[in-house]
Amino acid sequence: MDRQNVLAENPVEQGRGFMPAVSVNPSRVLFTAGLTGRTPDGAVAAGGMAAQTSRACERLQAILTHAGASFSDVIKQLVYVTDFDAYNTSGRAARAAFFGAARPASTGLVVRQLADPALLIEVELVADLGGSPQGKPLLEKYNAENHPGDFYQGVIVNGGRLLYIAGQVANNPDGSVAGVGDWRRQAEKVYENIGHVLRAAGATPAQAVKETTWVLSIESWRQHGPAVRRAFYQGDFPASTLVEIQGLARPEFLVEIEVIAAVA
Amino acid sequence: MPYSTIAPAEAKPVANYKMATRMEGGRLLYISGQVAWDADGNIVGKGDIGVQARQVFQNLRRVLQATGGDLSHLLKITTYITKIEDFPAVAEVRRSIFQGELPASTLIVVKNLFHPDFLIEVEGVAVIG
């Protein structure tokens, strides 16, 4: 491992629990799905923000452990909360109990809703695993626990070239919006666009590593999106996060999906 | 620069950014979401999206320059704002700062950022070396 922390010694930065930036040699990189405070039976952990944060971190720890990593190997975290006051009063401390002195690069967002209205926090990570990718498959997709969702909890990229795709929306090549007011058509168009980009980069949907789906309504997405998504991935899903937000670049857009993929 | 730009004929970006970038070597750099903090950690431009956006992109550039890189090393940025009405001002600042094609890009309007005075946060992934 040859992680380098950027501007780590700056006194202003030192007072924060995260690093301005972290660079690594991307020989082996782990991307996790967004993890929440769900218990093994699928219910949301009782006890509010502190309990949900602890549970989410416990699950992330299991995913890291499965890959031979720990919180000190995390290079980036993205924390989504729906109740910022609760995060400040009890979530931060619960998170710190797991991360200790580890300081990844970080982004924090207050969003309208997570996959279940009872969820208060969701956390996704990128971790540097180090070691040689030699002899390993391009992608190792795995779950650290059983779950009914159409995603993997962790995806390891072994030595591939990472592909970062801009958030895809339901736009036609001429700039017009496909499926105005039509969730199903927008879902189809977004995945058509993702497919075009993957093909142009020499990748297939199975080579998607991490997906983030931003929607204006999780309820509407659930009625129309998952069937289109399943047809696209054909069972070979990436790690994923689903978030309900206030808006996208144009008022007509109902959904935006961004994908990280890997090419051998 | 050790990355390729992916530009499929069948799918076009909705503005002046790259559809996708593929890393071809170098080191992978993850940059924290940058907010309108000055060097002393004070929030600048309270209530002023133009001032905040300029500070955010300066901070992003400062992080990249600390690695020996610059904005041209970015593979992708994600811009989070709290009001869609702020987007035109953000787009103007981005145009003046990037002076050409942006990296791959995502724009999201969230409820809030991690301080009530923050109007914009931008995170990036870059390739350096």
Could you characterize what this model shows?
The complex is a heterodimer of chains A (264) and B (129). Chain A is of the alpha+beta class and 264 residues long. In chain A, 28% of the residues lie in helices and 28% in strands. Chain A contains 5 helices and 13 strands. In chain A, strands 3, 4, 5, 6, 7, 8 and 9 form a 7-stranded mixed sheet that branches. In chain A, strands 10-13-11-12 form a 4-stranded mixed sheet, with helices on one face. In chain A, strands 1-2 form a two-stranded antiparallel sheet. In chain A, helix 5 (218-233) links the parallel strand 11 and strand 12 (239-244). The longest helix of chain A has 19 residues, at 48-66. In chain A, 53% of the residues are buried. The mean pLDDT of chain A is 96. Chain B is of the alpha+beta class and 129 residues long. Chain B has 2 helices and 7 strands; from the N terminus they run E-E-E-H-E-H-E-E-E. In chain B, the strands form 2 sheets. Chain B has a 4-stranded mixed sheet. In chain B, helix 1 packs parallel to helix 2. Chain B is globular and about 40 Å long. The relative contact order of chain B is 0.27. Chains A and B meet through strand 2, strand 6, strand 10, helix 4 and strand 13 of A and strand 2, strand 3, helix 1, strand 4 and strand 5 of B. Strand 10 (161-165) of chain A pairs antiparallel with strand 2 (20-23) of chain B, so a sheet runs across the interface.
